[in-house]
Amino acid sequence: xxxxxxxxxxxxxxxxxxxxxxxxxxxxxxxxxxxxxxxxxxxxxxxxxxxxxxxxxxxxxxxxxxxxxxxxxxxxxxxxxxxxxxxxxx
Length: 90
What we know:
Elements: E1 4-6, E2 9-11, E3 17-20, E4 26-29, H1 32-52, H2 57-78
Antiparallel strand pairs: 1-2, 2-3, 3-4
Helix pairs in contact: 1-2
């Protein structure tokens, strides 16, 4: 058991950070590195699609908007801002 507790913040060896609001309630926050990797991969994939796949400009813009909206919702869920969307999975 090498986990560390800083006040209301609980850090595990795997790098996961929990905020403890009550004795038995822990909210998991994704590691910052994971969030950064997902954003970089999504950006590179969008760039590849926009650069090398021949599609109509309107379809590419719709695809870009959909991906950005999904990423924003995912980020809001990852930081716990949209806890009411807990039942939706992507």
